[in-house]
Amino acid sequence: MGYDENIDVCTDDIVHEQTLQHVRTNMLNDQIVNELAEFFRLFGDATRLRILYALSLSEMCVCDISEFLDMSQSAVSHQLKVLRQSRLVKYRREGRNVFYSLDDEHIQQIIAIGLKHINEKYTES
Amino acid sequence: MGYDENIDVCTDDIVHEQTLQHVRTNMLNDQIVNELAEFFRLFGDATRLRILYALSLSEMCVCDISEFLDMSQSAVSHQLKVLRQSRLVKYRREGRNVFYSLDDEHIQQIIAIGLKHINEKYTES
DNA sequence: CTGAAATATGAATATATGTTCATATGAACA
DNA sequence: TGTTCATATGAACATATATTCATATTTCAG
């Protein structure tokens, strides 16, 4: 439905036209933004983040992860499905076990930067 | 309530004890994980991501952002509040306008890595 | 001081999403 | 082949959260 009724949010005619023009010119397109948001959303849940970090330490089977997280196998499987579908993790079958591991080299980088951010907030005056 | 009833998810006694031990030893603690997830969650919404990316291009006042995103001033203000409280953005008042800008040097880095990820998915066979 | 403009915010609502529960699938073992 | 173990998955449910609507706050113009 957009937000057409109230198109003149600001009354200075166009408030800061140059700013708007610059931002509009250099903005990411909608598809990219949406994919990017979906990508980051995966890191925005503590369970998934724990799984991703654990897998950065070692390949693990589903029941290892369940036990490690102290969560139901079902909950873990559901999250693994999400991570699989987004190609953040891959898996291989070995007998009855399915072993998961990271499938994206950016995961560690992103987490590392996040940790820096957290640490700096701590050490801030 | 935890997940105590079903502590033996896997029956191989303890499935891959060495793996578990290694992961447990090197895992982030809960507080860090939770803060990290909250941090990443901020990037996991398209509106916030648009705002953050726009602010990486230029300082903007609220109504610039509203107009740019074609969203209500209220919706934008609510999201800015979230970003403010997490210290991702800062603001300064100039007359009636409030100008927002990024307050975290990691934002661009994280977005850049995310974009790399997206691009590689595209160029994948 | 009064009204208008820019921004902030509380409550309500609609939607998204994580977990549980029950059950299905698929592999190994007897 | 039938049973058991490891994993996957659909539906239901509960919670989280983004947007809207109405209104409050703050600043400037007159």
Would you give an account of this structure?
The structure is a homodimer of 125-residue chains. The first copy, chain A, is mainly alpha-helical. The first copy, chain A, has a domain at 46-123: Orthogonal Bundle (Arc Repressor Mutant, subunit A). Chain A has 6 helices and 3 strands. The first copy, chain A, has helices at residues 17-26, 30-41, 46-57, 62-69, 73-85, 106-123; strands at residues 60-61, 89-94, 97-102. A 3-stranded antiparallel sheet of chain A has the order 1-3-2. In chain A, a hairpin with a 2-residue loop joins strand 2 and strand 3. The radius of gyration of chain A is 21 Å and the shape is elongated. In chain A, 29% of the residues are buried. At the A-B interface, helix 1, helix 2, helix 3, strand 1 and helix 4 of A face helix 1, helix 2, helix 3, strand 1 and helix 4 of B. Chain A binds a DNA duplex (30 and 30 nucleotides) through residues 9-12, 45, 47, 61-63, 71-81, 93, 95-98.
Task: Provide keyphrases for this structure.
125 residues, elongated, DNA-binding, 6 helices, 3 strands
Helix content of chain A: 55-70%
| Strand runs of chain A, count | 3
Low-confidence stretches of chain A: 1-7
Order of helices and strands of chain A: HHHEHHEEH
User: Which overall shape of chain A is indicated by the principal axes computed on the Cα atoms?
Assistant: elongated
Distance between the termini of chain A: 45 Å
Number of helical stretches of at least 4 residues of chain A: 6
> How are the strands of the biggest sheet of chain A laid out side by side?
1-3-2
Please identify which CATH superfamily of the domain at 46-123 in chain A we are dealing with: Winged helix-like DNA-binding domain superfamily/Winged helix DNA-binding domain
